[in-house]
């Protein structure tokens, strides 16, 4: 099993040190759900299809994320509370290169 250490700040401003597996095909939205860092029904509303932006996060420390794809870019163009460092958690698949990632969960909606 391969794990990385990331920091996630919840919507109340509390920062959580999280251990995330890189060998289970999980994305950041699923990690947030599994640690129950967002209220049920307020994250991953579309099931991780890049269609709702409920899993939007602000990237504080970027250790080398994959570039944003067209679907993610299009969804963020229509979302609320978007900033320069916004990404969709459902599009950030856990990889070893993400060690040290720091994000804050965006407000909902």
UniProtKB/TrEMBL annotation:
Keyword Metal-binding: yes
Entry annotated with the keyword Metal-binding: yes
Superkingdom of this protein's organism: Bacteria
A GO biological process held by the record: P450-containing electron transport chain
Keyword terms: 2Fe-2S, Iron, Iron-sulfur, Metal-binding
Coiled-coil annotated spans: none
Parts of the chain that traverse the membrane: none
Molecular function terms, GO-annotated: 2 iron, 2 sulfur cluster binding; electron transfer activity; metal ion binding
InterPro entries associated with the record: 2Fe-2S_ferredoxin-like_sf, Adrenodoxin-like, Beta-grasp_dom_sf
Protein name: Ferredoxin, 2Fe-2S
Originating species: Chryseobacterium shigense
């Amino acid at each position: 099993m391969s794990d990385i250490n990331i920091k996630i700040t919840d919507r109340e401003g509390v920062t959580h040190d999280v251990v995330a597996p890189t060998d289970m095909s999980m994305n950041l939205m699923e990690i947030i759900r599994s640690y129950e860092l967002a209220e049920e029904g307020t994250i991953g509303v579309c099931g991780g299809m890049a269609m709702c932006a409920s899993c939007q996060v602000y990237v504080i420390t970027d250790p080398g994320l994959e570039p944003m794809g067209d679907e993610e870019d299009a969804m963020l163009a229509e979302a609320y509370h978007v900033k320069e460092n916004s990404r969709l958690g459902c599009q950030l698949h856990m990889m070893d290169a993400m060690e040290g990632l720091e994000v804050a969960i965006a407000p909902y909606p």
